[in-house]
Design goal:
The complex is a heterodimer of chains A (445) and B (227). With 445 residues, chain A is mostly helical. Chain A is 72% helix and 0% strand. In chain A, helix 8 packs antiparallel against helix 9. In chain B, the strands form four sheets. Chain B has a four-stranded mixed β-sheet with strand order 8-1-10-9. Chain B has a two-stranded antiparallel ribbon with strand order 2-3. The termini of chain B are far apart. With 227 residues, chain B is an alpha+beta fold. The radius of gyration of chain B is 18 Å and the shape is globular. Classes of the chains: A mainly alpha (445), B alpha+beta (227).
């Protein structure tokens, strides 16, 4: 690491560069802890490869467990990023500027982790390439492979493009990793032409990425809803999963924002208003989520088809009651109380609501996957699913990989888009004023 | 083209479980220890399930043999991402163990819970390891398997018939469970042959199929108990 005085201190946005060049002791300690957890998870996974999937709690009727739950959950979280950032950019919401990059990074990292989960779940991961070699496009699993790879490609490009001007700035500052920055900045010199092309590319991508993002979680829901299983075979699943994904995504984004605001002292960039706006969005999603859940269960209960009823009662009063009502509490009751009462809607309040939503959404995925498998249509003894240490290790490993990925990213690139903040200062202000003048009658000057 | 059909007469079935045992030996199905079996790791191609009807003290206990129903419109083959399970030209739902990636999607898609998974590599105790059926491959950990209607027996019958240039005779091909059944409760044959016993029986007023409303057209018929 270069000790020479870098000239970033004189910049107006020095606070955004500081985390890249200055690393405290705490950083290495935290990193060490999460690397240890990750290594433990990797060890457990090799154990699973060696001894077979019998080391997990999955069994004859409950053939899908934590891995599929986590898969759906992580992919859901990944909707935070690209989708939210694209919608905010598209609607020209000025307050998006310090948020978009953080959101997009979540997508890229979590999508990579989530995309790995079906592979963890495979009995024969060594034959994974058969999916490409001999894949059947008629299978919903192949739709998944297709849409997730498309989403991963689109969202990493969408993350990378707006980073180019910032990377060029890092390159010009000198210091560490110059070769990397020179390579990644692609000869950016901030000419008018380059700016025009970049803006155009971002505009095309943000429109493209929205349908891709929606397709991803819809297709994941199709894995379940295309089967004949009661509790899964439901037309509402596509939009229900998308809503849940955006819901958990916003919560994850809020947690990340609050964490980095504290750790990297970004209070000047992430103001209360950002949390207020995103908190309102979270509140809306919570209510929409409740609407979908209510519709899903009411139709089941009212028609009272025996197999369907069996599963609903398993969730309402059976072994999964604690998870079901916990989910309702975490996803609806707590966030709505916190976010709709002004006194509670502080940054701490938003943080608590976000945590409960993330937990609640994980429970929701669990409640979707396991009870339907535990109660097959055939009159068989009910299965019980108790995850083993291997599955917990891999869940912890997935979360650690996410935190590690984020920590490493924060040490290489600025977490808040510097050039977009500058652009906001220089042009945004004027643009907004002009925009309002243009549509508000009587405001023309 | 023959249409294979199985008819299980629940009135004749004593629930002895011979079919399960014969199936295990015939198809080299791995045998798990009791601890693993209690955790749900048991593999049965032919299963005999216990059904309880009525409330205490008037409980009626029924034992029902349940092979794979070999649907004409199988939901499991539709979802397989790599064509490791498919409807073969004989109309049977086949598995390719060397293709299977072990995603277990077919297991979740099967409403009859007919498929089983190799949670571990098979551990053979002394005895069964000396008398594998050479016609059936031994499976490894991480793949899905299920009742095949003893399709290796069909292959043999087809070859024999081809050599002698004749159709497969009635009773020439039958799965191990049919052959072993001490009360002859399981019938097997070609439903295309209108004189066959299975055709007659499947037209009986006692004949039902499990969850016919799902439209999967299972090939296994049950004859209800005479009360």
């Amino acid at each position: 690491m270069s000790e020479q005085k870098l000239n970033y201190e004189s910049e107006p946005d020095a606070a955004l560069f500081r985390p890249i060049y200055e690393t405290g002791k705490g950083y290495y300690i935290v990193m060490g802890i999460f690397i240890a957890i990750l290594l433990w998870a990797i060890f457990m996974y090799f154990n699973q490869i060696r001894f077979g999937l019998g080391v997990t709690g999955m069994n004859q009727t409950i053939t899908w467990g934590f891995y599929i739950v986590n898969f759906v959950f992580f992919i859901g979280i990944s909707h935070a990023g690209t989708l939210i950032s694209a919608i905010l950019r598209l609607s020209k919401a000025e307050w998006r500027r310090p948020i978009t990059r953080m959101a997009e990074v979540i997508t890229a990292i979590v999508l990579a982790i989530g995309g790995l989960h079906p592979i963890l779940d495979l009995g024969r991961p060594d034959r994974m390439l058969y999916l490409i070699e001999a894949g059947r496009l008629q299978s919903p699993l192949l739709w998944d492979v297709t849409s997730i790879t498309a989403y991963f490609t689109a969202s990493t490009v969408y993350l990378f493009l707006p980073m180019i001007p910032d990377i060029a700035r890092l390159r010009d500052q000198g210091g560490k990793l110059k070769w990397l920055y020179s390579f990644l900045s692609w000869g950016w010199t901030e000419t008018e032409h380059q700016k025009k092309v970049l803006n155009k590319a971002i505009n095309i991508l943000m429109v493209m990425v929205i349908p891709i993002a929606i397709s991803v979680h819809t297709v994941i829901s199709y894995i379940f809803s295309m089967t004949l299983q009661p509790g899964w075979h439901s037309t509402i699943f596509g939009p229900y999963f998308v809503v849940g994904a955006i819901f958990s995504g916003i919560a994850a984004l809020l947690i990340v924002m609050i964490a980095f605001r504290r750790v990297f002292h970004l209070e000047n960039y992430l103001k209360e208003i950002h949390f207020k706006y995103l908190g309102t969005l979270l509140l809306i999603m919570s209510i929409v989520w409740f609407y979908f859940t209510f519709s899903e269960y009411l139709t089941g209960i009212f028609a009272a088809e025996p197999h369907e009823m069996h599963i609903i009662m398993y969730k309402f009063t059976g072994p999964f009651a604690i998870f079901f009502w916990g989910m309702v509490l975490c996803n609806f009751v707590i966030p709505v109380v916190i976010l709709s009462i002004k006194r509670f809607k502080t940054i701490t309040g938003v943080l608590i609501a976000s945590f409960t939503v993330v937990i609640g959404m994980w429970l929701e995925r669990l409640i979707i996957v396991v009870p339907s498998l535990a109660n097959p249509r055939m009159d068989l003894p009910m299965g019980i699913y108790i995850p083993t240490i291997t599955e917990w290790a891999l869940l912890a490993g997935g979360l650690s990989a996410f935190i590690l990925g984020y920590m490493i990213f924060a040490k290489i690139f600025p977490l808040i888009s510097v050039w977009e903040i500058e652009e906001g200062r220089k042009q945004g202000l004027k643009e907004v004023e002009e925009r309002i003048h243009s549509y508000l009658p009587g405001a023309q000057t | 083209m023959p249409k294979w059909r199985m008819v299980i007469d629940l009135d004749k079935c004593t629930g002895c479980g011979s079919c399960m045992a014969a199936c295990k030996m015939e198809n080299n199905v791995q045998i798990v220890d009791s601890k693993e079996a209690n955790e749900g790791g048991v593999l049965n191609w032919m299963d005999v399930i216990t059904q309880y009807q009525g409330d205490y003290p008037n409980i009626e206990v029924n034992r029902v043999p349940k092979p794979c129903f070999q649907c004409d419109h199988p939901p499991c083959t539709k979802v397989c991402p790599v064509r490791a399970t498919y409807l073969n030209p004989d109309g049977l739902v086949a598995q390719i163990y060397h293709r299977c990636i072990g995603c277990r999607y077919c297991m979740t898609a099967c409403p009859y819970t007919s498929k089983v998974f190799n949670w571990h590599d098979p551990k053979w105790i002394d005895g069964p390891n000396k008398c594998f059926n050479p016609d059936v491959s031994v499976r490894m950990k991480g793949v899905v398997e299920k009742c095949s209607f003893c399709s290796h027996r069909l292959m043999k019958a087809k070859e024999d018939a081809a050599i002698e240039d004749r159709p497969i005779l009635e009773g020439e091909y039958e799965p191990a469970c049919v052959e072993i059944c001490p009360t002859d409760a399981i019938y097997f044959g070609d439903a295309e042959n209108k004189d066959s016993e299975v055709y007659e029986l499947s037209k009986s007023y006692r004949a039902t199929r499990v969850m016919e409303g799902l439209g999967l057209e299972p090939k296994v018929y049950y004859l209800a108990k005479r009360s």
